[in-house]
Amino acid sequence: MTARTLIYNARLIDPADGLDHKGGVLIDGALIADVGPHLTRTAAAELKIDAKGKCLAPGLIDLRVKTGEPGAESKETLATASEAAAAGGVTSFVVMPDTKPVIDSVALVDFIQRRARDTAKVKIYPAGGLTLGLEGQKMTELGMIREAGAVFFCNGDQAVSDAGVLRRAMTYASSFDALVASRPDTHSLTRNTVMNHGAFAARLGVRGAPMEAEWIALARDLTLAETTRARLLVDTISTGRSLAAIEDARENGVKVACTVAAYSLFFNELDVGDYLTYCKVFPPFRPEADRLAMIDGVKRGAIDAIVSAHDPQPPEDKRLPIEEATYGAVGLETLLPALTSLVAQEHLTLLEALKPVTSGPADILGLPQGRLAIGTPADLVMFDPAAPWLCDRDDLSSRSKNSPFDGRRLEGRVLRTWVDGVTVFERA
Amino acid sequence: MASKEAETPYAFPHRHLLGIEGLNRLDIELLLDKGDRYVELNRQHVKHADALAGRTLINVFFENSTRTQGSFEIAGRRLGADVMNMSVATSSLKKGETIIDTAMTLNAMRPDLLVIRHSASGAVKLLSRKVDCAVINAGDGTHEHPTQALLDALTIRRRVGEISGLRVAICGDILHSRVARSNAILLNLLGAEVRLIAPRTLTPPGVADWGAEVFTDMRKGLEGCDVVMMLRLQQERMDGAYLPSAREFFHFYGLDFEKLSHAKPNAFVMHPGPMNRGVEIESGVADHKSRSLITEQVEMGVAVRMAVLETLANAKPDIGAKNA
Q1: CA distance A247 to chain B (A)
Q2: Do the Cβ atoms of A321 and B178 come within 8 Å?
Q3: What is the pLDDT of residue B3?
Q4: Strand-pair partners of A201
Q5: Is B125 in contact with A275 (Cβ distance < 8 A)?
Q6: Which of A92, A424, B157, B184 lies in the 20 to 30 Å Cα band around B178?
Q7: CB-CB contact of B184 with B292 (8 Å)
Q8: How many CB atoms lie within 10 A of CB A373?
Q9: Residues 6+ apart with CB under 8 A from B33
Q10: Which one of B21, B122, B207 has the shortest CB-CB distance to A321?
């Protein structure tokens, strides 16, 4: 019999069941053996941990992470990303296929899984490329790549611009009930843009991405999901009107889920400030009304998953005039603190904030974790929801430090993280 | 003469000149007043002052420019500074070295003044954060071109009169124009009524917040104007079809005598240069002896740049360093 670990005196947060109450979790090996208010200090276990009233929740599941492995390991490897994830309470994440080479074959899916198993501290799931080389021309071996372990298919940061290609890929994917993720973007409207299109961009003298680029592409993708009957995951929406369109489609029976980047809940377009390249992301920070609409979508449960959109970029690609800088921001380590900060600001309850990073994404992918249930993997995070701290990019674990949260005050900090019952992070 | 500045009761509070935004009316008037005095110096037989003797000015142009670079060079030399020109657009710095590396390299040469032009908005501000000396924005992307706005204001003040209360039209490619941005801010600050005239594809979003009235009909927009500022149609920046053709643009937005007749009877015409004759302005208008101020703008450019260089070289950086 393996050693059992008891975490007691905790505030248990289980969004899957809507429970927020005092209690404990008993870990036996890699699994949760028992959970509930009856698990107090006196329960039988070989190792006992006093949570001191802090929150204990399922480890976070993040559906959108980029690393530089393979191809750009100087930005981030699966191992360094997993360090950042563990420090942020993220115990499972999906890596995007836009690497060099692109994850568009069974062998490369296999490579990611092997590297993850051998080097990473948390669970890593590959997303497969929807088209070969992500060129938007020919579909990949969707069926076999799915069997090899790809959890969904997407075209990375580039939307498939050819509707015919996307229609065929979705039709084919629907034969296997494979999930297709599509980024709602009309590239011809957003090429070479720096931030949201509007008065502020005009004042800074930079090119802006209009919101209609998102609406037009989304309308196409939702229509194709309806006609092909494929399962669609809309990858990072950023406007209230997009959410309304998704809810309409859902009401009409379209199998659609959607995600939002944590930064879209936290920042608005004015945060780009003095040409801050760490705030150059895609989709860009939007007007305040849209930020609030995204938070409201989380509150109502209309947004299925919140993602970190972790995208490490080294200084040589960011310390440039904003027009020349690359897109992207790291986010694994600030995902939970961004959400707990929104809780501290009374925008959301803890249960509302955590559902789209636990059971929400778990349900999309059909994973057993993401809940405090007996017999499920003991992927857990213990955090102090009110601990104030100042985010300093140099303290982040990611190999790249391009965080828009740099210099921001956040509330809520991870204390300890478990994956399959093993501690992978503990704050000193 | 420049050493007599002690009489000015107001000290310029900024370390750099990165844009008109962030300046107040006093800052602008101080620079224009000094510019006025340098105009007089520049019209003397011997045009030399020693306000910047022993100081080093480096012109760093990441984007080619003959006029602005020449104007800054003459301004620096007339004040006695050692002037060096670096044309980075043609050098090996283009790729590989980041603008920040360039800034550190320049900074190590210990200049007193850096004049910078760059094709990316915000690039000059980025560079200014990494150096110890005063930085002057000689145009950054489609953001700002503050010395152009100052020289335009000096030109108007000397030839048309007090700027407050004047009606000024800025016409043409507003979207891609840093000159339009700087001028709209400055003219608003000094109390002019600003009008922007352009087709919708060349009008920036949120232009309503600029404190200016926007017109698509040039004749209506020109009604009652004291000054008509034309902008260069930045053809090299057009990567798409913002306009059907240069011919159509001239038809609707090119300044000819007929359109000009809708402005005040003696309205003045300005253009920051270089002009596309027959595209945004008809030659006869551009060369009109009494109404075109275009060559005078060039003369004012040297004077105003002398004022800016001398002011920043002798500013006390502690006061305004925070918002620089």
Answers
A1: 29
A2: no
A3: 46
A4: none
A5: yes
A6: B157
A7: no
A8: 17
A9: B8
A10: B122
